[in-house]
Design goal:
Elements (H helix, E strand, L loop, with lengths): L7 H27 L4 H12 L2 E2 H8 L3 H13 L3 E6 L2 E9 L1 H13 L12 H15 L6
Antiparallel strand pairs: 1-3, 2-3
Amino acid sequence: MATTRTDPLTLEVVDLIGTVVARYYEEYDRAAAAHSLTGAQARVLGLLSLEPTPMRKIAQKLKCEPSNVTGIVDRLETRGLVERRPDPADRRVKLAAATDKGARTALQLRESLGFAREPLAELSHAERAVLRDLLRRMLGVDTES
């Protein structure tokens, strides 16, 4: 049976991580609403503004069901922010891609963010590297990559 750590330091760290995540999503959702988008729509649009992506890969990145992504992309497509196109590498696969209007909207959204855009802005490069390595260790991810 695993032991549970309930010492004050552990509880404070867990609480701080939760606060950072909540603050990130609150700010992101407010910025999305200013563009008449939901937070999920804004996150999908942000991903697609970087590169055209298969729907399944979007679902994996957002850790949700592909059917949810289909609905989000449908709504973004209706607004002219996203389009579907065949994957040049495999014409059986459909890619979702930001339109010019979608890319401009994603850029405006990113520029309107403060904390969510640069939550680590106050940390030095060395501090960010230590934090990255600690988070990777917590998640069991190889720290050599």
